[in-house]
Structures are given as structure tokens and as C-alpha cells.
Amino acid sequence: MTSAEPSRLDRVSIIGTGLIGTSVGLAAARVGCTVTAWDADAHTLATATGSGLMRAASSLVEAVRDAQVVVIATPIAAIPEQVEAALAAAPDAVVTDVGSIKSPLVIDVALRTAVSARGRFVPGHPMGGSERSGPNHASAALVDGIVWVVTPTEASDPAMVDRLENWVTLLGARAVRMPPERHDRLVAFVSHLPQVASTALMALAATEEADEPEILLLAAGGFRDLTRLASSNPSLWSEILLANGGQIAAAIDLYVARLTTLRDEILAGRGSEVEATFAGAKEARLKLAAKPQVRSGVAVLQVSVPDRPGALALLTAVLADGHVNIEDLQIVHSPEGGRGTVHLTVAAGAVEEATQVLSAQGSDPIRIA
Question: What is the CATH number of the domain that holds 97?
Fold first, then answer.
């Protein structure tokens, strides 16, 4: 049995104050929660709590005392031990984590924790992040509107699952429930595989640079976009990929098969099939770029902007004054500097109005999708 559900979830503990843990803590503080944090690294903890929005604790036990929600945001290998400690020290709290792999974690926690405590463990994974790391890059905005996957185990108490989902919603994220195994399979495609592809492409270009030193001088927006993730934390991603090895290996095999098919179509000169592949991918990408309420139709406008302070702010302000909502925005920097290109995704019904207000401001928008 669990204690009565509190009317307000305002006592939160963050264990691990890296990028994600600190961002979640800041988001909780933003909505009025009292947030206490602890990290094994004193310098990291001091950086995370320097703003005064979170209180630093001297130990995990102190941090979770009287907590209603405990978030474990440590590296994957440390999560089971920290979950065990938090469950023991905070007998009334729901304990969750932010690990990007769930199935092995669920097994490890079950082996370590008492049966009576397992109901209060509800695994989770906020699908937000950055190629940057550390609390100095954290922001409450990182949580805004993201999907926060909640992966209850068979032992999870339904009341605790509801508590976590209510709290996630309070932070401004969208709670999505699914089994741990399904989570691991899906993130292998949409999170882990992009990291692998970005890293492999950057490594290939770096190898080619040995014989062609000017190759990276030719790198334009597309290459820069695709390789952005290659600047991610190496040790973090090595740990993630090894933990989800079977699923990511299957995803890589399917990706290689797709590349091989496309290669064969190109070599055989099957233009219609190549075009169909690109058309299908383009249609899917346009749907991804838009919020659900505008997925019935979006458009992409290309706008050249000078590379100077305030240029992007002026562009977005002009659209705001014209009551045109930006559904997605991408900046493509020119390798030679001095200018750049902004790709603006707007609802299809707003294309004409967006074009008019941008043209009136002196831009020359070109619809590219």
C-alpha cells in the first residue's frame, strides 16, 4: 500500500547534476517546487546550484529526505545503486531515472531492491538533450514540450506511475507510457542511430582529410547539420550504445540495408526509384517538423540573412508582428562566413502571409518545400 497521494508535488530531489539533471531541477523550480540536489562531484554540484534555484545537499540521503519525487540523473552504470539508496532513504517518494536505456536497468534494480520498495520505482526517459554536457549548459527550457517516456515495470504501483506522469506534465513535458523493451527498440532508431550515423560520417571525413586537406573547407550546411551530434560526449555515448547493443546493432543493419538499396538504384540508373526514395523521406520529414495540429500541411521558406548580431531576432520579430507562427527553424551557416541561410517551417496556410511580411522587411524568401 502507498500513502495518500499528496495534493501538490512540490518537494523534488535531483541526484546527479549534469545537463539533464540540472535542467529538470531548474524546470521543477520554475513551477514552484522546492528542489534539493546532490552530486558525487562537489564542483559539478556547486555549478548546478550556483543560481540559488536548487539547494545543495551534502549527501544522497539528505537530498531525498521528505521528497515526493526523486530523479536519478547519474551515468547509466550508477543508476541501479542510486535507485536502491533513494528508495531506502525516501520511503514516501516515487523514484525515477533519466537513463536512455531501460531494460537492463529494470533488471538490475529488481535484483538490488527489496520487493516492498519496487512499487515506487518508475523508470523514465526525458527525450531532450544536447550535444553539450554539464550543468553550465542546463536550462529549464530543455524540458519544454518534450516527450518524457515513462516505462513502468510489472512491480510499479499504478498510483506512483500516475504521480510521476502528473509531475512530468506539471513541468511542461508530455508523458508517454510504454514498456521498457519497446522504448529501447524505438530509441535505437530515433536517438542512438542518428548519433552513430553522425559520428561515422564525421570520422570518415576526418580520415579523407589526410589525403584531401581541403575537404572540410567545402563542408556546407548539410554536412554540418548531419555531423552536429559527433561533438557529443564520447564516454557517455559509448556507455549508452554498449548498454543497448542488440537493439542498436539491429538498427544499424537496417540502415546499412537502406543505404545499399539506394546505392544499387543509383548505380543502375533507376532515376524514378531514387526520386521516390527522396520524395518519401521528404514527406516524412515535413511531418516530423510540425506540431500535431499542423501536420496536415507545412511549408519551408529559405531566407538569406547577414551573419551579424540581431539578424535572427529581427527575422523572428517580423514574423511575430505579422502573426505568423514558426513551427521549426534551422540555421545553415556559410563556410566562408558573412552570411547564412535560415530555413523556416510554417503551416502551409501561412505561407502567403509569411512571404508577404518577410518581403516587406526586405528579405527574399524562397519556398523550398
Answer: 3.40.50.720
